[in-house]
Amino acid sequence: MNHQTLSVLFLTMVMLTAIQSCSNPQKEDTSEQVKVYEKGTFGYDLDFLKKYYQDLILLEDGEAGIVVVPSLQGRVMTSTANGSGGQSFGWINYDYIAAGKLNHQFNPIGGEERFWVGPEGGQFSLYFDQNTTFDFDNWRVPKEIDTEPFSLVSSDGKKALFQKAMRLTNYSGTVFEFDVTRNINLLHKEEIEKLLGMPLSDAVKSVGFESENTLTNKGDNNWDKTSGMPSIWILSMLISSEQTWVIVPFRSGDDEALGKIVTDDYFGKVPSDRLVVKDSVLFFQADGLKRSKIGLSPQRSLPIAGSYDAKNGVLTIAQFTIPEDNTDYVNSAWEMQEKPFAGDVFNSYNDGPLADGNQLGPFYELESSSPAAALTPGESMTHFHRTYHFTGPKPHLDEIVSTLLNTNLAEVESQLAK
């Protein structure tokens, strides 16, 4: 076989190989591109939520991130301080979301921070129709804050702005027309330090976000104490453990001047081993094992509260605005009220089994409210609520607790030994 023949054979083989390659392209190795995350991680929750909410927005800053969903009223569903493999901090009701059914009363899908309006009960309630009794069968969450979406106005990877027009009627028959704007801002570490007024160690992982919630009277009438006044109500659903305690610093002083320290009988009086009141701080057990709730008045509340999960080493801080010289806060008690504007600034709820043994969670909530909105037509009111999570070496977490919450981790953990 001569040189020319060998050359022809070689070229023929090259052409055949190329044709075969084109007709049978090799599949790309995607094993590194698809990662399955364990339940409890941010990556797991992000993948889960993507299946059900196509409008999902991911805001990120380094390893810190949050998931926001416009169709869920601009709700922050969860967050992470340590990337996709880090712990997911928001409580999510997976089974309820997967079932895809709507409930006419309330759809408990969870979420780390959501927008509601108050009051819940009383003659100015927005959750009970006129001439109904204040019991669970008649209670329902307005669709505007439960099932209807908020419109996404803008988003840039660090912020997301939402808007919603609402028309609600309270128990007394007053119609409220108003606009809500909700601006979610993922905070950089330097912003967190500035807002909390303290430096953070590089050994601490953190995530922080702020919701700026504005309510504008779009109707023709003034909102006052005769008609009732709505309020901005922010609720955070967080994952409980048997070693979680809510930590609430408060303004100390005489009961005659400031009133009682804490309201502790929303669902029956909280047992003394679950609510410990010290000189300037109280501890409320948030283990998801007993349904209970506490509240602090504007006379007692400070613009900060927190919780510590000793099992998972997670410190959570909630920070919120309390305007000076305004003590009119809506009362959400399920009854006709003598003092409908003597309500709470801060609340914490611990989930637990109902009388029939069923349970929604377990989870717990940190909640804040704005004052009652005494707005004239066109006037607005804004309420800020910020959520921070910290993980890392205990001495550094203890520094945060000692600086912000009138206590220390040793005192918090002493409650676990009881």
Topology:
Layout: H1 3-23, H2 42-52, E1 57-61, E2 64-69, E3 75-80, H3 94-99, E4 114-118, E5 151-155, E6 159-169, E7 175-187, H4 189-196, E8 205-217, E9 231-238, E10 244-249, H5 255-258, E11 275-277, E12 281-285, E13 292-296, E14 304-309, E15 314-320, E16 346-350, E17 364-369, E18 380-391, H6 394-404, H7 409-414
Antiparallel strand pairs: 1-2, 2-3, 4-9, 5-6, 6-7, 7-8, 8-18, 9-17, 10-12, 10-14, 11-12, 13-16, 14-15, 15-18, 16-17
Describe this structure in words.
- The chain is 16% helix and 30% strand.
- It has a single domain, classed as Beta-galactosidase, Chain A, domain 5 (Distorted Sandwich), CATH 2.70.98.
- The chain is an alpha+beta fold.
- The protein contains 7 helices and 18 strands.
- It has helices at 3-23, 42-52, 94-99, 189-196, 255-258, 394-404, 409-414, and strands at 57-61, 64-69, 75-80, 114-118, 151-155, 159-169, 175-187, 205-217, 231-238, 244-249, 275-277, 281-285, 292-296, 304-309, 314-320, 346-350, 364-369, 380-391.
